[in-house]
Specification:
It is built from two helices and no strands. The protein is mainly α. The protein is rod-shaped, with a radius of gyration of 17 Å.
Length: about 40
């Protein structure tokens, strides 16, 4: 239980969740930009 607490504190302290999303966002945006569209939004 203490290990889980330390991991969550480390994620919060170093803002790791936002950094992970930033790393994933660029490849995902490239993927979705290259998809064929049936209609324009």
């Amino acid at each position: 239980m203490a290990a889980l607490f330390l991991v969550t504190v480390a994620v919060y302290w170093f803002n790791l969740d936002t950094k992970l999303v930033t790393l994933i966002e660029k490849p995902m945006m490239k993927h979705y930009d290259e998809m064929e569209r049936d209609h324009r939004l």
